[in-house]
Amino acid sequence: MLIVMVPSSAALVLAAGALVTYDFRAFESSTRDDLLAGAKIVGSNCAAAIMFDDPVAAARILSALAVHRDVVAAYTYARQGRLFAQYVRPGSGAFTPRAEPPSFGFHEHQGRLLVVHPISLDGERVGVICIESDRSEMWVQLRRYVLTVGPVIMAAFLLALMLQRSLSPLLTVPLSHLAETAEHVSRTKDYSLRAPKFSEDEVGRLIESFNAMLAQIQERDAALHDAQVLLEDRVRERTLELQQEVAERQRAEQTLRESEAKYRELVQNANSIILRMTPDGVVTYFNEFAQTFFGFTESEILGRNVVGTIVPYKDTSSRDLSAMVHDIGLHPERYASNENENMRRNGERVWVTWTNRAIRDPEGNIVETFCVGNDISARKIAEEALKKAKEDAEAANIELEAAIERANRMAMQAELANNAKSAFLANMSHEIRTPMNGIVGMSGLLLDTPLTLEQREYAMTVRASAESLLELINEILDFSKIEAGKISIETTDFDLRATFEEVINLLWVRADDKGLQLGCLIHPGVPVALRGDPGRLRQILINLVGNAIKFTDSGDILVEVEARNVTNSHAVISVEITDSGIGIPADRQHLLFQSFSQVDASTTRRYGGTGLGLAISKQLVELMGGQIDVRSETGKGSTFWFSILFERQPPEQVYEPVDTRDKRVLVVGGSSMQRRILKTQAESWACRTEEAADEAAAFYALHRAVQDADPFDVAIIDAILPGGVGDDLCRQIKSAPALAPVHIILLYALARMPHADHLQEIGAEACLHKPVKQSHLYDCLVNILSGHGHYLEKGYAEGRYIPESEKKNLRILLVEDNAVNQKVALRMLERAGYQADVAANGREAVAACAEEYYDIILMDVQMPEMDGYEATVHIRKQQENSGRRSVIIAMTAHAMKGDREHCIVAGMDDYVSKPLDPQLFLGAIERHYARGIPVEAPPPKAPPTQTAAAVYDKAGFLRRVEGDERLLREVLRTFLQDCPRQMINARKSLEQRDAVTLTRIAHTVKGASASVGAMAINEVATRIEDAAREQNLDLALSLLADLESELARFSAAAASEE
Amino acid sequence: LTAVLLLAASLSTFAEAPPKTAAGREDAAYSEYQIKAAFIYKFATFVEWPKEALPPAEAPFKIGVLGKDPFHETLEQTLGANTIKDRKTAIERSSDPRDLLDCQIVFIADSESGRIKETIELFKGHRILTVGDMDGFAVAGGIINLVNDGKKIRFEVNVDAARRAALKVSSSLLQLAQVVKETEPEEP
């Protein structure tokens, strides 16, 4: 009863509830939609009113919401939440609107629903609208709904109850019987039970079917049981049968495998020896081939042991074969393949290769060994032959090795001999140089003593001869080294400009002595940071420029450097040395670079030399992978040129001509070559240049530039001008107000460099000495153009000059074992104003250094007891912790390669070769002095100002002869005797318009006058020399008169001094 | 940006700022013409021009001032970088109405009141929103007339004139405006 009632009434209530809830949701949702739609419409209608600030209009628009009965109130807010307009439903009670609009969306508040929505216009928010609803409409609808649905549900419930009550007995009675029967069957498993049947309706049929089902189940149960018993019997029988079958098949297969294996081996080895034997070695099978091969019939061999029949007891190398056979029987697998010596019946030994295999019973025990053999006697014989041949070859090899050893020994002997030769060369050079040192040094010293003219001439000849002999020896040694391939070209970083300027500086004095102009022009764009062998380049240059000086009597020698094929990594440097010398006839030019040849024999007589210089240069250039050649015309001078490919150093600093850009530079005076060089250099720094040969041209150029309003910034003036001296020109320029702003750089010969006070007096800003180094010129230009005042190129900055007082303070130790050399070096030092202590060998030197500190140590290399290298090592060790470091300069007679490296490795700073050349020897000291040897004495005061040229500077003269009054008088007398003769010759040359001779005479007078302190004469002579060189003979003539009057004044002054 | 802020500020303070220049009462920061300038800018939002009457997209929306300009810099300050119909704005001033025929809005200054008939006649047939601030401007055929009632700036809209110029005035705007019908019958 209840079971039927409860679910049906619950379903009814649930359905009613769901309907009410759904409708409530639907009402709520539509209320919200209506409200939001109203807010959107009314809001957008209000936009204009808010924009145009019309609250009245806005309120009017809001009041349109009155049609919605559940809208209680509405507000609009303008920007910043300001309440703008409101609407309140009449009769809904006093309502305080919110001062601030709530956030957008729906809100529940005291049973009321609020919707808040922005008012936008063209995407811009202009205000907010808020509408409040009491949802009255919804409640009304909901109430109406409940009232309708409630009674319907009640009626349905009652009807269901009544129907159920009248219909239930028809079903329940037969069903409860059926249920009882089913429960009984399932509990007792008794399928014979049957349910009673009550009627013929649906329930009656159900019971019938149930009973029929029970009957079927009963039948099946019985049949299933019978079948199961039968199946079990069948399975047991079949399993037994299968086990028997498997065992039979396994046996059959085993038999088949064995017979197959036997058969296969027999067939395959029909042409081989085939036998079987027991593990003891008893033969059980012996095939036909075996019988034929060994000579035993089957009957003879079966049952016998192999040992003693086909296997000998011992083989030819006495190996015990019976033991081996025994072993085969036990471990046939170890002998799966082996070669053995066997025996035929007739005792003949044969070689057989055997394949052995064990035949095992099913348990794995060895039953027999199965052996297959092949005759390899022929192969064995071949092998034996081969082995013999190999032994023969080995014997031959041993002989060959012995031969090689002999050859090596001979080569070593040859090398030893060669080394001995080299050592002999080195020794010879040492042996020759030692006496040469004495000759050159002593004759030099001799020349410094008072001598008669005749004696002086002889002594000078001795020295000149010795010097040429030395040069000759050097060249021959050099040449022989090249010939012997002993010269190697090194590769180091070097500065091309420095190398050239060094050579020019070195040779400039020699050129100047001959009255020649020597200049070097490195064209802009030539890379200077290169890699190569600067020493060899210097040697070539010295040779070629030296030759040019030697073969030129007057005029210019120009060294021009250009670069071709410049890449980032390489550049071809091309050098031309052009002289105005005697020239070389075309048919002789090809001989020039051959060894021992000069233009002709007379040349050799006239100019001297070995003729090896050019050959050496050519060899060196070619060693560096370059070319060398000459262009020349007899009488018109020669141009020697060479070009070498150098590697460039990685990134070179680029010259940035910032301070010099566009500056105007005037180059005044000097030779045209000098002007050209200076102009090119200035132009390479982006200067604009002009040149003027003399004073008049200079003035013209300067004035014109001022008129063009483009005045010169710098004037570079040679101190010697055709019409006067540079100093005067400088004074005149500086005294002309219009021209005065120009900066002036004066160029002097090194010997005539003025003092700073003098420069200031004449108004020049800077001075440089000739030959002008490009780097100095650049520094100078930058310096004065940037307004850093005066630039005075200091002769001493290059290590050419050490003040006398400092020389005395330099502590020098001379280490030399040879008494003559000792004396020579010591006198050279004393002559130059130095004082030195002496040590006779390395040991003494080390002892002396322990006692006292020496600034400079001049160290001979080859000495008894302790040589220079060892002494240097000791001295360096001594000084290690003293914080002071002596400069050690090696003196070596070795002219061989490697000396320099050897010296540097030993810890020396520099080296000079013997015999000592005073210039190089003293230059080395000065060079190191300039690098800053600390000298304890205070720096000397500047030398006194030399004002206008003194008529007779006796003090200077006396200093030069080292206070030797007797020598002074003698030299003076010679000078006074010689001068008038020179005057006469000068006049004669002027009459003949022979400028060359006049130049030489003036040059001679210039040199002589400087040494006796006749400064006035020196000045005039200098001007004559320059005038003559410029072919200005009229000027020379007028100057000659000055010279004569100056000579008279000097004679008088000298006489009064006596 | 300043112009936008100024505009925003001016719009939000209409209520507090008495727009009329009553001496001694003018404590507000905004003058009558600042408000009128803002009105002119806002009218553009509520008025639709036919497509062909608007300048090409990259050309500016032009506002003309005919006669003696009462705005001075105010109009520029108000418009500033603001856009109208997605276009930049440009202001043209002239005393000859024919110079302003390519403008979209023309403000006809008080100085033109003497010849207002002829001026309005000249703009007839052009798609130009004429705005004025003189008595009888709308009645005479001007489209929008700004009226100062002493407390507030209000405006009259001549819907016939607007229709004639093919301009659609938003109903929102009309709700705020005093709608004026022309006294004279339209010419056939």
Notes on the structure:
The complex is a heterodimer of chains A (1058) and B (188). In chain A, strands 11, 12, 13, 14, 15, 16 and 17 form a seven-stranded mixed sheet that branches. In chain A, α9 packs antiparallel against α10 (453-483), α28 packs antiparallel against α29 and α28 (965-991) runs antiparallel to α31 (1033-1057). Helices cover 53% and strands 17% of the residues of chain A. Chain A is α/β, with parallel strands linked by helices and 1058 residues long. Chain B has 188 residues and is an alpha/beta fold. Chain B has six helices and nine strands. Chain B is globular and about 35 Å long. Chain B has helices at residues 2-12, 32-46, 74-79, 116-123, 159-164, 171-176; strands at 47-48, 61-66, 89-94, 105-108, 129-132, 144-148, 153-158, 168-169, 178-180. The interface between A and B is medium-sized, with 20 and 16 residues.
